[in-house]
Amino acid sequence: MLLTCKTGGDHICEQRNTKATAYNHKHLTQRIVKMPRVANHS
């Protein structure tokens, strides 16, 4: 992803990268929060 981004432009790459990182971080946090609940349930 980074290599393709660098060819397209640094500014666009940084924006997309930040958005993707934020989305992934949110998704990971949700998974981490959900997992203990499932473990406790079973």
Describe this structure in words.
Helices cover 93% and strands 0% of the residues. It is rod-shaped. The mean pLDDT is 65. It has helices at 2-8, 10-41. It is built from two helices and no strands. The chain has 42 residues and is mostly helical.
What is the average per-residue confidence, as pLDDT, rounded to a whole number? 65
Measured between the Cα atoms of the first and last residue, the distance is 39 Å
Query: Low-confidence parts, pLDDT < 50 over ≥5 residues?
Result: none
> Strand-residue fraction?
under 5%
The total strand number stands at 0
Question: What does the secondary structure layout of this molecule look like, with pairings?
Answer:
Elements: H1 2-8, H2 10-41
Give a quick summary of the entry.
This protein has helices at residues 2-8, 10-41.
Short descriptors:
single chain; 42 residues; mainly alpha; 2 helices
